[in-house]
Design goal:
Shape: globular
Number of domains: 1
CATH superfamily: Alpha/Beta hydrolase fold, catalytic domain
Number of helices: 11
Helix content: 25-40%
Distance between the termini: 24 Å
Strand order of the largest sheet: 1-2-4-3-8-11-12-13
Protein name: AB hydrolase-1 domain-containing protein
Strand content: 15-25%
């Protein structure tokens, strides 16, 4: 199973409840690689905490490992009630806000990560590149990927979960609302706003604190040289952060959603009351408390379920899939798979479907 790059606690923007969280960085940050680099963040929710669900769940960890191979930065976290910390709510509303809190924190972190140093031969042709030079302090034969458009950068955000985690993921707010939280954190929870500053600082300083053992294609990785090359840019970003609450460039964030063994009524209503009863009931997502991010036009959704799932019968899954499937939305039924993905060979099918979709 993958090893987290960060173990931390993230305060909920709702009430500052501390959420145990992990952040995993892909190979482009942890080992020499020729993988083309693009900012991609995935946040994955776990099964129902009162029944033993946590970020240590086997299926969750398999999804994490799969997304890492596809080049995503991945975060997992424990909902309230997991590992005996806090209590699970009866409506899921607290958990939705906790999920959004982790997404916002991780966005601040990933947006602040400096581009990894990669070989010149691996540079994507669609981006501007700056050859190594003494002025930039980069080792010979290396370069930094620059942004194609000055002042703006695009990134992908994947919100997903397994079982109960997929139910909560489907209720998270639209991306514009999440970005508003990032730009202007609620004044009622100053500890959350402070945590975002910490996230940005941690992201900017990642190479300084984690890359001493990393090697490059030209020999020993010189983190001091990379730091020097990026220092000017970092100083400019820091000044902008102090003046603009940490938002120092324009971001175009596109979202996609991953639902593994999603819960449908009546199970969802037992876990979340009225909100769970309404999820997907109209074929257009949740109708409780306004629009959800998964309902956005153009949002990409992958739902993977087993035909032997005992929590949600296959007939309900097929009816739901028929109602929902369309442009951007796809459902995959895995033969012989139950809710827990323990049957022989089914985990490999799940991993293959998720990886193909995550790379697309």
């Amino acid at each position: 199973m993958p090893t987290p790059s960060l173990n931390l606690q993230i305060p909920s923007y709702l009430d500052a409840h501390l959420l145990d969280a992990r952040v995993y960085l892909p190979a482009s940050y942890t080992a020499p690689t020729t993988q083309h680099w693009h900012r991609k963040l995935a946040v994955i929710g776990h099964p129902y905490a009162p029944l033993g669900g946590s970020y240590d769940d086997r299926v969750v960890l398999e999804v994490v490992e799969t997304l890492l191979r596809a080049g995503w930065v991945v975060s997992t976290f424990n909902f309230r009630g997991a590992h005996g910390k806090g209590r699970t709510s009866w409506t899921g509303k607290l958990e939705v806000k906790d999920f959004a809190s982790v997404v916002v924190w991780c966005l601040a972190y990933v947006q602040s990560l400096p581009p990894p140093v990669i070989p010149v031969s691996a540079a994507p042709p669609s981006r501007l590149t700056v050859p190594a030079s003494p002025l930039r302090g980069l080792p010979e034969g290396e370069m930094v990927v620059e942004e194609a458009e000055e002042g703006e950068e695009g990134m992908e955000l994947l919100i997903g979960g397994y079982s109960y985690g997929s139910l909560i993921a489907s209720l998270t707010p639209p991306i514009p609302d999440i970005l508003k939280l990032l730009k202007t954190p609620p004044p009622s929870t100053p500890v959350f706003a402070k945590s975002l500053l910490t996230a940005r600082e941690s992201g900017r300083r990642w190479l300084d604190t984690h890359s001493s053992a990393r090697t490059s294609y030209s020999g020993t990785f010189n983190r001091a040289a990379v730091h020097a090359a990026l220092q000017q840019e970092e100083n400019i970003k820091l000044e902008c952060e102090q003046a603009h609450h940490g938002i120092d460039k324009r971001w175009k964030v596109t979202a996609r959603y991953l639902l593994v063994s999603p819960l449908l009524p009546p199970i969802s209503s037992l876990l979340m009351g009225f909100a769970g009863m309404k999820v997907w009931s109209l074929g257009g997502g949740s109708v409780d408390e306004g629009e959800k991010g998964i309902e956005a036009i153009g949002a990409r959704v992958l739902a993977v379920y087993g035909d032997g799932d005992t929590f949600t019968g296959v007939r309900k899954y097929r009816k739901w899939r028929e109602k929902m499937e369309g442009e951007g939305w796809s459902g995959v039924e895995v033969g012989g798979a139950g809710h827990f993905w323990r049957e022989e060979g089914v985990m490999e099918v799940l991993v293959g479907e998720v990886e193909e979709w995550a790379r697309g």
